[in-house]
Every structure is written in C-alpha cells, then in structure tokens.
Amino acid sequence: MIQRKLKESLKKMAEVYPVVTLIGPRQSGKTTLARDTFPDYAYVNLERLETRRFAKEDPKGFFESYPPPLIIDEVQNCPDLLSEIQVLSDSLGKKGCFVLTGSQQLSLMEGVTQSLAGRTALLTLWPLSLQELALASICKCRDEAILWGGMPRIYDSGIEPGIYYRDYFRTYVERDIRSLMKIKDFDKFEVFVKLLAGRVGQVFNASALAGDVGVSSKTIGEWVTLLETSNIIFKLRPWYGNLGKRLVKSPKIYFTDTGLATMLLGIENTQQLSRDPLLGNLFENLVVVEIMKSALNENRMTEFYYFRTDTGVEVDLLYKIGSNWNGVEIKSASSVNSEFFKNMEKLSKLPGFEQMKKSLVYSGENLNSYKGVHCCNYVDAGLLITKRK
Fold it and tell me: Measured in whole angstroms, how far is the alpha carbon of residue 142 from the centre of its chain?
C-alpha cells in the first residue's frame, strides 16, 4: 500500500476534534487511508443499501450496533445521521469519536455545516501525488505521469489507465451526476465533459461552450457545478485585487486527475500525448494539481490563483505563504529559456508583488537559481509548498 502524506494531519485532527470529515473524489483512497490510520476503529459503509436503510430508519439502533470510535464511509448517503453524530459526540465529550468520508462535496458540506459546525475538522484527499509515488519507488516520465494520473487502484492492480478511467467515468461519474440532477440528454452532457477536457487550463467561457454543446449557458453553469460537486474538476480563480479593470476575471478549469482528462480527450498512449497540441495544458494541469495536493496534504489554508491581463501578461499560478507572494510559471519543456520568466518579471514590478518569489516548474533538472528564479522538476513541484517559506 502506498503511504499517504495526509495521514499525519488526519491523526492530528482526530486528537483535537470529536469528528474528522474526509472528502475527495471517489476512488482517491479515502477509505483505505481512514482504515490504515485508525485500525482499531469499527467500520461501516453507507453505500450498502441495507446498511443505509438501517441508518435512516433507526439511527439510535444503528449506533448501538456500531458504537464509536467508528469510521462511516460515504456518509452523504444518509445526511440525517449527522444530527445523531452531533448528539453522540457532545454526550461522549471525547476526541476522535468519528471519522466520516464522503465524495459528494455539496450534499455532504450542507449537512456538516448545519450539524457539525465547530465539532469536525475537514480534510481533503485527492489522488496520489507524484511525491507519494516517488516515495513508493514509482517514478513516471512526464507523459506517463499525465496519462496515468493518480488513482491508487491503477497502481495497486496494474490495470491499464485508459480502461480504468473509461470505467471510472461510466460507473462513478455518471452515477453521481444522475443522483444529483436529472439530466434529460446525457449524450449532450458527455459531449460537454469531453469538450471541457479540451479546454483544460484555459479561461472558462460558458457561452462559447454552450454554443458548441447546444444547450444554454445556464445549463453549462449547472453542469460545471455538478462536476465540481463530484470532485471531478475545480476552478482556479484569477487574482485581480486592486489593479483595475484590465485583468481577466473568469476562472480556469482543471481536472482533479489528468488521467481522466486524457481519457476524455481520446489520448491512449504517450506517443499520442507527446504530439497532442494540448500537451502543455495537460502538463500545467498536472503541476497545478501537484502543488495543490501538497497544500491539502499538510492541511494548509492556501488560496491559489492565476494572473492574467487583457494584454496577455500571464502567470500560471499565484499563492501566498505567510505574507509572501509566490509566482509559478509552468512549462512542459526540459530546458530553461529566459523567455519563460518575462511575465513574472512584469508582475514583480506591480504594487504588492515586488518581493514575489519566482519559480519555474518544467521537465528539466532542479536549479536553485537561474537568473533569480528557482527552477524545479515537476516531480518536486509539491516542495514549493512544503519547503519554501
């Protein structure tokens, strides 16, 4: 089993909160992590119909049969159970009574904020990071890393990534979408998801996408929210602060796992990927996710942005560590080009960014400083969060 970096944060939160809630995409390893971290806890899965029915019809009897400390898997299937968890955790007065997991972020968060506010820590587990894979002596070249993604089952079972992600989309994504909203024309929805994959790392334009799919902009907005709710995609919002109206204010769309994006694009192998015009966008997706995973695994409250003006000055990733801004340019190239740094130089001359730390993530070797810019290989992108303070 590949060890997860979130394990230490999970342990720490169970020492200070009565409830810990672990969210993330389906198959990202939440159950395995929870059971590995708390091997002495009882375990129950609300995906099972009879168990779910028991919990809904007789919550008190349910907890008599499954007393804490307890791991409850896919708790969003029975949100009414959260009120009983609140009562139980208050009456017990102990830490680490319950570990809850869930994969439908919206429905779960509504219940958590209503019933468990102040009683639960909230942690997010995304698929395996490149750091976690490297620690398990699994190293993939650039194109393999994009194509394989990070779903644990691929590495545990040796299943071909394209087959896994095809089945993942059909069995998990479609099921979640159907349970959250009745989509009349699922064929159009599938076209929408594939076209969205073709826009990965680009500024999101709902109207243009609506025209291509043949639905309204409102429908596109609802479908994007559904994919966010199911942890399939996320939005990277632009930073526009107080610099006026010349900055782009629409988000970019990224996939939580690049393996799913490549499958949706019909990319089946590294040879095909290396020639694909979206290689740079997919590499950018890989790196953005890697850096965000590092922050999530350390339970850091880091906010991420991109920067872009209407004249084309763009920095791929922008975030703060303490009071210091960090700017990251992401290039799929294996050698450094001074042209890569021009936009960061322009940004560093704007008010508030004069002391910005500048980094390049690419496919080449780690360089502590190249013309004042820290250059790192994509495998080490997560270290920009954990080691640069």
Answer: 19
Indicate the burial class of 327 (C-beta count within 10 angstroms; 0-12, 13-18, 19 or more). buried
pLDDT digits (tens, 9 = 90+) for 86-121: 999 999 999 999 999 988 666 666 767 777 888 999
How many beta carbons lie within 10 A of that of residue 140, not counting itself? 15
pLDDT in tens, 7-25: 999 999 999 999 999 999 9
Measured between alpha carbons, how far is 106 from 102 in angstroms, rounded to an integer? Answer: 10
Q: What is the pTM of this model?
A: 0.93
**CA angle, residues 317, 323, 328, in degrees to nearest 5:** 20
User: What sections of the chain are H helices per DSSP?
Assistant: 7-14, 30-37, 49-57, 59-65, 81-92, 105-115, 130-135, 142-148, 152-157, 161-168, 174-180, 186-197, 206-213, 217-229, 258-264, 270-275, 279-297, 342-347, 383-386
Average pLDDT, the chain: 92
Q: At what angle do helices 105-115 and 217-229 cross, to 10 degrees?
A: 70
9, 14, 26: which is closest to 73 by C-alpha?
26
- 3-state DSSP call for residue 155? helix
For 262: left if phi > 0, alpha if psi spans -120 to 50, otherwise beta; the answer is alpha
